[in-house]
Specification:
Rossmann fold; alpha+beta; 4 helices; AB_hydrolase_fold; Serine_Prot_S9B/DPPIV; dipeptidyl-peptidase activity; about 25% helix; 4-stranded mixed β-sheet
């Protein structure tokens, strides 16, 4: 593909961001006991020891409101990125059942009429 035009290359921003230690991002599909799968995104400290010898605090961000999802593969710097990068916290986002992820109408409507009970449990 031939590049026609750089609308705005954002060189200054790219240079600044390239100097930052950003968190490592990993995506996981976790099978739940009820046959459903939860989508999980982990933001890990840039220098995380993944051998299991080092323990890290973890904050879990769960929001499973109807037709919503937070586990997405896109670039961003947010509160979770800051905590993982600057305070060695593992920041997890979880799309549980009833979230609007890409798992079909049945999955998305599981919390209908029971949102407060089922959203918290799974």
């Amino acid at each position: 593909m031939k590049r026609l035009l750089d609308w705005e290359p954002n060189k200054d921003i790219r240079d600044t961001i390239s100097k930052l230690q950003l968190p490592k991002t990993s995506f996981h599909s976790i099978d739940l006991e009820n046959g459903y799968t939860a989508q999980v995104m982990l933001l890990l400290p840039p220098d995380a020891d993944l051998s299991g010898k080092t323990k890290y605090p973890m904050l879990v961000d769960v929001y499973g409101g109807p037709d919503s999802y937070s586990v997405v593969d896109r670039w961003s710097i947010d509160w979770g990125s800051y905590l993982a990068s600057s305070h060695s916290v593992i920041y997890a986002k979880i799309d549980g059942r009833g979230s609007g992820s890409r798992r079909g109408h049945h999955f998305n409507t599981l919390t209908t009429c029971d949102i407060f009970l089922l959203q918290v449990i799974y």
